[in-house]
Design a protein that fits this description.
The structure is a single chain. This protein is of the alpha+beta class. Helix content is 37%, strand content 28%. The radius of gyration is 12 Å and the shape is globular.
């Protein structure tokens, strides 16, 4: 079974900085972020995984990632995750 992950990263150099994304390969994606190959996260490396949620359906993962990037999703994240 293939899982689709929504993840929240926290910068180790700036703990108030977070990044939300999705992937099918969590370990490889974290390496990409920490190597500075992603323009959105390259300035605050290294990153650590704060939260990961696995989905069996890709569209559900994409929908949840999109929700977390809204104002109500950010409020949910701060309160619950």
């Amino acid at each position: 079974m293939t899982y689709h992950y929504v993840y929240i990263l926290q910068s180790q150099t700036d703990p108030d900085r977070f990044y939300i994304g999705h992937t099918d390969n969590l370990e490889e994606r974290l390496k990409v972020h920490n190597q500075g190959k992603c323009k959105h996260t390259s300035k605050c490396t290294p990153w650590k995984i704060k939260t990961t949620i696995a989905f069996t359906y890709k569209q559900k993962a994409l929908d949840f990632e999109r929700y977390l990037k809204t104002s109500s999703g950010r409020a949910f994240t701060k309160k619950r995750l």
